[in-house]
Structure formats: structure tokens, C-alpha cells
Amino acid sequence: MKSQAKTLQRCMSIADLRVLAKRRLPSPIFHFIDGGAEDEVTLRRNVEAFDDYEIESEYAVDVSKIDTATTVLGRNIDWPVMLSPTGLTGAFHPHGELCAARAAGRAGTAYMMSCMSTASIEDVAAAGEGPKILQSYTFRDRSLTREFLQRSQAAGFSALCLTFDVPVLGMRERDHATGMTMPPSLTLSSLMDFAFRPGWAWRYLTGPKIEVANVSHRIAEGSRDITSVFKFVNGQFDPSATWDDAADMIKHWTGPVAIKGVMTVADALRARDAGATAVIVSNHGGRQLDGAPAAIDRLEPIVQAVGDELEVILDGGVRRGSHVVKALALGAKACTVGRPYLYGLGAGGEIGVDRAMSILREQFERSMALSGFTCVEDITRDRLTHRGND
Fold it and tell me: Of 47, 63, 128, 337, which has fewest CB within 10 angstroms of its CB?
């Protein structure tokens, strides 16, 4: 454990954690985290587009004290970075969602739990001290979505995140190459790679069974193996879901509601009219439509359109604390991160998630100080330029 902690401390960036996760995870599992749709253009652009924005620093400012606190989705958090919902997190570590929830609590921020988690709503609610947010789809079986809402509300989740950008699954070619599809179809080469990662294999064999915990009870006894569950889940994504369905689901929730997967001004306004209190600007981490714009490039027009009517949160491409500063300057209330903490989880379990969050927070505070910002309210659009436009 001490050796692992020392190795993690030597990781100075999310990129370092990614390298370590690649070394420690079976190749199909790593690429399931790392990959995107088709040619992965949008996946790359999500990160690269941050380089098009430049922060204008102002000096001779007293930055001896930096206040990173903010309020988002009705809860106070210590800094404006939350953990994104990621499905099947237990595949990366046997207690993946619980590790992430506890780490989020220690980091003073919120954890968004995917309804496709390998831990139950109730178990995640009991893990860690931070706010919990349920992410759900509007499934074909609307009673399943309503059940998720009822259970998470009863368990104390503070907000709801409805995702509408998966009418059908994107073509994630890396996953097809390795067999990490839904349901899995692992190749001989992939199976051999599992054998060469004894640490992961041991945790898998001795840990809890990987399942989609919140839907397993909907599968008939005798057919609740992972393949049957994945087939059930695949059949639940609803290509006919509309904004009317969003409005109906929002009526079943008491508290803040975010719509995730918004990439246009028109959809942001539709989310507002459906009753949402926030939108999450996201292209699903480049895992759905390849060729979609980078999330950061769609942030400002949406912020300008909704004004103070909605909180706007950015999801996608954040790998550095300076990226968070840039997003806030463009009007985001906060950012969410998925791959960064999953790299940490794959690299070192729960303490790896801790390391990912500490890296980002240290970078964020340093970027604020070097820019002359003493609190998040100071981070404004006039201090950001865009290459070629400003």
C-alpha cells in the first residue's frame, strides 16, 4: 500500500495517471475507459479545444488566500469540479462507485452516480459525505426510470441528472476490437491480456460480482448473468424519448434537475421549458456522435442564451486545473470529470481517485493564483481570449 501511494504521488498530472492505469488494467478495460466513437475526432477535440483559449493574467494581486467554494445544483461544494456519471465503474475496480463517492466526499465535492452502476443506489448513498446526484436515462419502461427516481430521492440524493444523448449507442470501435461491448464478446487475445494483469484478476475473482445493480432485480431468476442484464439494458434505451418525456420525469423529482447532453442553444431552451434548473454541456465524452463539436466550444453561446435562468455545467475534455478556469471564464458554473478519476481508479483504486482529485484541485488553485483570481466569482470572460477570434 505504501509503495502504491508513493507511485501515485509521483504522478503529477492526469496524463501520468493515465499511463499508470494503462499499465495496471487489462487492455479491454483500459480502452473501455479511454476510447471514444468511430475515429475519435470529437474525443480528441474535447481536450485540444481548450488550447484555443488563453487566460490573461493580472499581477500584483494578493493571492495569498484563494477561495474556490461555489454552489451548484442546490449544494455548496468546496471547488467547482464534480465527478461525472460513469457506467460499470465496478469493472475498473470491484468497489468502483463506492471508491469514487468516498473520494468525492473527501475532496469536498459531489458525486454523480450512473444508473448503470455496479453498486446500488442505496449503497452509494451511504458512501462518503458529499452530495450525491443520480444520473438516469428515460428508459422504454418508464416505470424503471421512476423507480430510480423514487429510490434515490428516498436515499437522500440531492439532485437529478437526466441524459438524452443516447437514443442509440454510438459506435465505439475500440470496444468492438477488444470485445468490451454490451454484452461482452471478448477475443482470445483480450482474454489472455486479463491473465497478464494478476492484480486486476485477483480483485475481480475475490471481489463482488460485476452486475448492473439497479436493474438486476428486473431480470428473471435464472437469467441474471451479465450477458442477460446487458441485453436487457440495451433494449431499454429509447430512441423515441422526447422533451415531453423529460418534462414528465422532472415532475417526479423534488429538487434541482440537470439535463445532460445539451450541445445547442435550442436544446438548452427546451430543457428550461421542460422544467430543468441546469444543463450539462456534453457530447458524452466523445463516445456518441463523432464529428460533434468540442463541448468547450458550445459553452459560451449556451450561457449567453440562458442567462440566469439555468446553471450551465461543462462536461468533457477537462484534464487540467487551467481547463476549469477557462470553462468558468466562459460562464460555466462548474465542470464534471469522468476519465480523469477513472484513470486514478485504474491506477490505484480509491487512493488513485484521491490523487486525481488532488492533482486537479492543486492545478486549479495554482492557475487561479497565477491569473490573479482570488475567488471563482473573479473569473470572468474579459480575462479570456480565443485564438483567431478575439
Answer: 63
Asked if the peptide bond before residue 256 counts as cis, ω within 30 degrees of 0, the response is no
SS3 112: strand
Q: What is the pLDDT of residues 350-381, one digit of tens each?
A: 999 999 999 999 999 999 999 999 999 999 99
What is the DSSP-derived secondary structure letter of residue 210? P
**Catalytic residues, which ones?**
284
The average pLDDT across 26-46 equals 96
Q: What is the pLDDT of residue 377?
A: 97
User: What does the block give as the cell for 181?
Assistant: 461491448
Residue whose entry in the numeric block shows the C-alpha cell 416505470? 143
* Domain boundaries 2-386, corresponding CATH code: 3.20.20.70
**Under 8 Å CB-to-CB from 150, ≥6 apart: which residues?**
252
Distance, in Å, from the CA atom of 255 to the CA atom of 318, rounded to the nearest integer, reads 27
DSSP 11: -
Q: Cell numbers for 65, please give them.
A: 488566500
Q: Domain extents for the chain?
A: 2-386
In SS3 terms, 269-303 reads as: HHHHHHCCCEEEECCHHHCCCCCCCCHHHHHHHHH
How far apart are alpha carbons 310 and 250 in whole angstroms? 15
**Residue 327's pLDDT band (cuts 50, 70, 90):** very high
Beta bridge partners of 112: 133
CB-CB neighbours of 2 under 10 Å: 6
Q: Which of 78-82, 188-192, 254-258 has the lowest mean pLDDT?
A: 188-192
Tell me if 278 sits within 8 A of 161, measured CB to CB: no
Supply the angle between the helices 265-274 and 243-251 in degrees, to the nearest 10: 40
pLDDT of residue 192: 77
Q: Where are the alpha helices (DSSP H) in 166-234?
A: 173-178, 188-195, 198-206, 226-234
Q: Quote the CA–CA distance of 199 and 262 in Å, as a whole number.
A: 39
pLDDT cut 70: percent of the chain above it = 95
Q: Is 77 left (phi over 0), alpha (psi -120 to 50) or beta?
A: beta
